[in-house]
Design goal:
This protein is α+β, with helices and mostly antiparallel strands. The chain is built from 3 helices and 8 strands, in the order βββαβαβαβββ.
């Protein structure tokens, strides 16, 4: 289930239940969830000292608080790493590998698929690699 699939009443920006941040190297940091309370994989690199739950909630960001930030900062000294937020207790068996978002074409996932620009004289459309073309222009196949 993703953030956009959840019914509005299930979303909360309050500090939630126990959760864990599991880094790619196997390090585990226990805390409590806040922001959107969903399990997630991704890059770990931002540590903030103040909770902005409503902002995190509004943008669908999964986060945790009450973590040993000093120890986490030491782990992240060399830059970001991959990790997973696990809601609730950790399972007793091994977790599947953390998915690496860098293996996907993230630019294509978030890029605009079509664009229309209107000037005072002409209307233009974005034609992919062709660029902006007049609205009536036929794009070659």
């Amino acid at each position: 289930m993703t953030f956009t699939d959840m019914p509005y009443q299930e979303l909360t920006c309050e500090v939630g239940l126990v959760c864990s941040l599991v880094l790619r190297d196997g390090s585990v940091f226990q805390g409590r969830s806040f922001g959107v309370q969903l399990p997630t994989d991704g890059e770990v690199g931002l540590i903030v000292c103040e909770k902005s739950g409503s902002w995190l909630f509004a943008y669908g960001v999964q986060s945790l608080c009450d973590v040993n930030t000093r120890a986490l900062t030491c782990r992240l000294q060399n830059g970001v790493t991959l990790g997973r937020i696990v809601q609730g207790a950790l399972p007793s068996g091994p977790l599947p590998p953390v998915s690496d978002p860098n293996t996907r074409n993230l630019v294509a996932e978030v890029s605009v698929k079509s664009l229309t620009v209107t000037t005072c004289w002409l209307q233009y459309e974005w034609a992919g690699s062709t660029g902006l073309v007049p609205h009536s222009h036929r794009i070659p196949a």
